[in-house]
């Protein structure tokens, strides 16, 4: 689809001399590269853990998402610069009907794509595809902006409308890039789970008496896979085997409830904390 849109928008850009259409062409051209990056990132992220990557390859998705952010940012800068130049020159567009027609076709195709991507993200929770979907979703507004720019400048006679819309498109892309980068950076920096996700896990763990001494909870996410580790106080009169068997049973039950989460539990004698002082107080209190 990206290849088809590149061809049609290039044809329209040449015939209309529209800055907004040129910006849309640049965006579609970068979409192709971004989609290739996503394909590689998702494929690598799905590779099972190996001896050199014991926690898997999930962060490849976050890297792919960041690559898209760079692409979107470059596109925004390019469109912004060209729009300012056109605004200063006072150049006008031509053949608005052609540009509007191409933009309408692009809207229909993009709607079909993001609808399918929404289904895929819902099924896989993929960060890279979610970022890719955000980029294509922004294309809907971009194509509508092209239509508005061409109509205002050629049919209403509002000179400079095309360049102004080009600047607005550039700003929209820059804001989208900023928002998309935050989630990818959270994964790369091993940010703790969101409060609601963390609380759901704690509520589930609280249902097992063996885990009543849970403390020093740590969480992170890599791609579509989650990791959680914590310490549990066990009675001092339990044998190693008894403690192991009881905690293992609780862990197996939790694993069934959180199938995409790797759970690691460390046992401590009741009242003992060998990581005291390493975690901020508010995290220890939440756990």
From TrEMBL:
This protein's UniProt keywords: Cell membrane, Membrane, Signal, Transmembrane, Transmembrane helix, Transport
Gene3D superfamilies linked: Cation efflux protein transmembrane domain, Cation efflux protein, cytoplasmic domain
Record-level GO cellular component terms: plasma membrane
Residues in Cation efflux protein cytoplasmic domain copies: 198-270
Superkingdom as given in the UniProt entry: Bacteria
A Pfam family that the UniProt record links to this protein: Cation_efflux
SUPFAM superfamilies, alphabetized: Cation efflux protein cytoplasmic domain-like (SSF160240), Cation efflux protein transmembrane domain-like (SSF161111)
Signal peptide start-end: 1-20
Membrane topology summary: Multi-pass membrane protein
UniProt KW tRNA processing keyword: no
InterPro entries associated with the record: Cation_efflux (IPR002524), Cation_efflux_CTD (IPR027470), Cation_efflux_CTD_sf (IPR036837), Cation_efflux_TM (IPR058533), Cation_efflux_TMD_sf (IPR027469), CDF_Transporter (IPR050291)
The Cation efflux protein transmembrane domain, residue ranges: 1-189
Family the UniProt entry places it in: Belongs to the cation diffusion facilitator (CDF) transporter (TC 2.A.4) family.
PANTHER family the UniProt entry points to: CATION-EFFLUX PUMP FIEF, MITOCHONDRIAL METAL TRANSPORTER 1-RELATED
The protein, known as: Cation diffusion facilitator family transporter
Organism of provenance: Sphingomonas sinipercae
């Amino acid at each position: 689809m990206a290849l088809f849109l590149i061809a049609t928008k290039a044809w329209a850009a040449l015939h209309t001399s529209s800055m907004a259409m040129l910006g849309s062409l640049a965006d579609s051209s970068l979409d192709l590269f971004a989609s290739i990056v996503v394909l590689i990132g998702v494929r690598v992220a799905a590779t099972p853990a190996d001896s050199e990557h014991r926690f898997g390859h999930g962060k490849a998705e976050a890297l792919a998402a960041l690559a898209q952010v760079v692409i979107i940012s470059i596109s925004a800068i390019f469109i912004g610069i060209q729009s300012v130049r056109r605004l200063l020159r006072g150049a006008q567009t031509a053949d608005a009907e052609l540009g509007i027609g191409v933009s309408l076709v692009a809207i229909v195709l993009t709607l079909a794509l993001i609808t399918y991507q929404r289904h895929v993200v819902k099924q896989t929770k993929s960060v890279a595809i979610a970022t890719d979907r955000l980029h294509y979703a922004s294309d809907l507004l971009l194509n509508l902006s092209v239509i508005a720019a061409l109509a205002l400048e050629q049919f209403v006679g509002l000179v400079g409308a095309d360049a102004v819309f080009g600047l607005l498109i550039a700003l929209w892309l820059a804001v989208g890039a900023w928002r998309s980068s935050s989630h990818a950076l959270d994964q790369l920096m091993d940010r703790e789970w969101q409060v609601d996700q963390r609380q759901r896990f704690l509520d589930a763990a609280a249902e097992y008496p063996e885990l009543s001494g849970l403390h020093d909870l740590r969480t992170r996410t890599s791609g579509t896979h989650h990791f959680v580790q914590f310490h549990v106080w066990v009675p001092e009169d339990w044998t190693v085997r008894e403690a192991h068997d009881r905690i293992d049973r609780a862990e197996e039950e939790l694993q069934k409830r959180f199938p995409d989460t790797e759970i690691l539990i460390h046992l401590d004698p009741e009242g003992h904390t060998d990581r005291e002082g390493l975690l901020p107080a508010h995290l220890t209190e939440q756990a």
